[in-house]
Amino acid sequence: MADEAPTSPASRPDDLVVARPEGLYCPQGGFHIDAWRPVERCVITHGHSDHARMGHGHYLAHTDSAGVLRARLGEDIDLQTLPYSETIEHNGVRISLHPAGHVLGSSQVRLEHQGRVWVVSGDYKTEADGTCQPFEPVPCQVFITESTFGLPIYRWAPQSQTFAEIAQWWRANAADGRASVLFCYAFGKAQRILHGVDASVGPIVVHGALEPLDAAYRAAGVALPDTVRVTDDGVDAALLRRALVLAPPSAQGTPWLRRFGSDYSDAFASGWMQLRGARRRRAVDRGFVLSDHADWPGLQSAIAGTGAERVIVTHGSAAVLVRWLCELGLESHGFHTEYGEQDDEAPPA
Amino acid sequence: MKDFAALYATLDATTSSLAKQAALQAYLRRVAPEDAAWAVYFLAGGKPRQIVPVKLLRLLAQEAAGLPEWLFEESYQAVGDLAETISLLLPPPQDSHELGLAEWVEEQLLPLRGLPPEELTDRLRAQWRRLAAAERLVYFKLITGAFRVGVSKLQVTQALAAVGDVDAKRVAQRLMGYTHIGARPSGEAYRALIAPVVEGQHEIGTGGQPYPFFLAHPFALPLADFDAALGPPAGWIVEWKWDGIRAQLVKRGGQAWLWSRGEELVSERFPELTQMGEALPDGTVLDGEVVVWREDRAQPFAELQKRIGRKTVGAKLMRDLPVVLLAYDLLEWEGRDLRGLPQSQRREMLDEVVTQLRHPALVASPMLTGESWADLARQREAARERGVEGLMLKQRASRYGVGRTKESGVWWKWKIDPMSVDAVLIYAQRGHGRRASLYSDYTFAVWDAPPEAPGRKLVPFAKAYSGLSDTEMARVDALIRRTTIESFGPVRSVTPTMVFELGFEGIARSTRHKSGIAVRFPRMLRWREDKPVEEADTLQTLAALLPADPP
Predict the structure, then answer these.
(1) A276-315 pLDDT, tens per residue?
(2) Which of A231, A291, B130, B285 to pair with A301, CA 20 to 30 A apart?
(3) Is the pLDDT of residue A29 over 50?
(4) For chain B, which domains are there?
(5) Which residues neighbour A340 within 8 Å (Cβ) at sequence distance 6 or greater?
(6) Which of chain B's residues have a Cβ under 8 Å away from the Cβ of A153?
(7) Do B70 and A323 touch (CB under 8 A)?
């Protein structure tokens, strides 16, 4: 649902990153970044499926992404990993990864060639959330930024406030003897909620789709509270009525939910829940505003923090952000990408 | 105000009507009567006259948010609701307040109306500084008058009935006119809504209050089942279903009031009806339909619309577009509530009243008679030609109920099938509320010539936004984004690829439409995915549906 952004009339012959039909490409280095069609060599910013696609010859990603990438793309992928801030050189291009604060292992990709520095943001969030390394601004001349929530109506409250609202909703439901079913994206959002929510309120049930991802977070040393599956011993109707249940959005309306009775309360956690219309379309009782993407002020501060003179905008509200940045006196244009369409946080249709 | 904002949030946060009912009752019990008075006013659909010109409101909000106009507009298009957009864009508050809802409305908001722009600007800015983020949405909704929160008037009525332990029908009666545009509900007015019923005390017949309208149910059985479902036609009063404005004319204490079904006072728009009402004896209430009437014939709704659209009603307009009240019920006579009497008796009395008054603006809605339902069905065939929507069937023994109820007898509307054509979607616009950000409002076109004509073009003739399921709409939305030719602000033109069967109730010539034709109540009946654009209908197909000009 990306807006039509003015695409790359401003590209120049010596640009470090160009948009090609198969994905973003570094001509000097001869490799791609988050390509959406199979390529020989690809740097992966993070493990969400629209950025980490199957079929590349070689993958380069952050160390903490390895578990998720192998689980999603296959154990046998040719994967090289790199810790944050460590540099490797390929065809004379120096490549390093820097925290993007989006999900576990998410990285901005810094490219340096003959004194020029470009940074590809991937997806990012500026608020520290405790489940992944917080976003770090990386000085550069050209910054390629996402724009998922690129409108000033998107301003997030501190996550502590949202977690307090979730706990309050859960507590009230538990007191009424109703399960609290919270739909959230399986990779990133679910673990962030597990890490942030007040686990003393009651038992936490997780849908099977979340388990491998929880395990990857635990393996990376992220503290998550104990959870149970509906099939575990001792999980009975009485327990479910006091429980917080985390499930992927795809579980909404499926028979899996029948076990929680007819009167469970449901909610959805996403940045899109900022708008009343989106909440009502979701047809859940509650919408909690919780996003793994930067809000409007976050985008502004991230862009300003890089000191970049030229900003290239990808998926989301690209046209809006480009115009805004141009009016601020920066050089800006859009790249057409295929991110966002299968995003774990795709806009609600 | 904090309480009311919290109530709004709770009502908004649940889809359960039980939970909504509990929240409403708890709120009404908790707050001061003067706050409850305004809460009921807004929740039941009341809208004060415009407090702040929308243009100025947008401009000030845009300035306060520090945004250029285009970015404010982009934000508004994504949100689909002005009040919500502004509340999301304003900077955080710098101050606070402890004012209740009534104080906000009466001392802060209503006095803003008509202030010179500079003073208005200062006051609004001062108000915004004090509002907590959670209160903003409600505050701006009060100003923009788009206060919809998924609570029906019936639910408000039920909550009041529970709080006051009064019969809900009684509360509905007391609520009539409560939400009219100039109302200033007080704590006393609120107490009167929930006051215990005193036996023998006359609650109606005071002021210009109308009665809750009795509404009809749709009837769509095959003719063969009529006798089994309804019994013989002799048990029914049969009338045309007029396409006008349903209204009650109230005459009490020397004064007449005309109320539309939306409980708006429309007296000023129809001076000839108010004058006629003044000729009626005190303690009379008529129920009927306002229509433009020429040569003993009701004119298409489009004619009536020309009158509704005008701010001032001059002599020429009244001459060109004369209206009458087609009366079909008598609800009060000599100050006595007749709603408990059988339909047939009320109708006899009504005919007597109409005959006695002999006023050109009062016409008794004619009754049809038929040997059998088949006979009546044949008469119904003439509905379209007469410019009416079908027939009304009213049980002779039925009392006049409250709202869409069947407990006191029933009114059926036996409408003719809608006319329909296959039309092509050519423009789309994003919707509001639940459909914000979705392309949900469409403009449809037909061809201006038959398929063999060279260079024929699509001519827009109707807009429609209802009739699709959420799933269909999401698919149409995606297709619109993929086939966009051009965007003009919120509107996109698309490559013509989608054909819809468009239904409508009426059709008339129009000089205001490019196609020369205006249709009434257009809606999508079906998405014709099987039909190529070339096979959509033509202007000629539409013209063939136009009623023959009256001789």
Answers:
(1) 888 888 878 899 999 999 999 999 999 999 999 999 999 8
(2) B130
(3) yes
(4) 2-144 (1.10.3260.10), 217-415 (3.30.470.30), 419-545 (2.40.50.140)
(5) A1, A2, A50, A148, A315, A316, A346, A347
(6) 75, 78-79, 85, 88-89
(7) yes
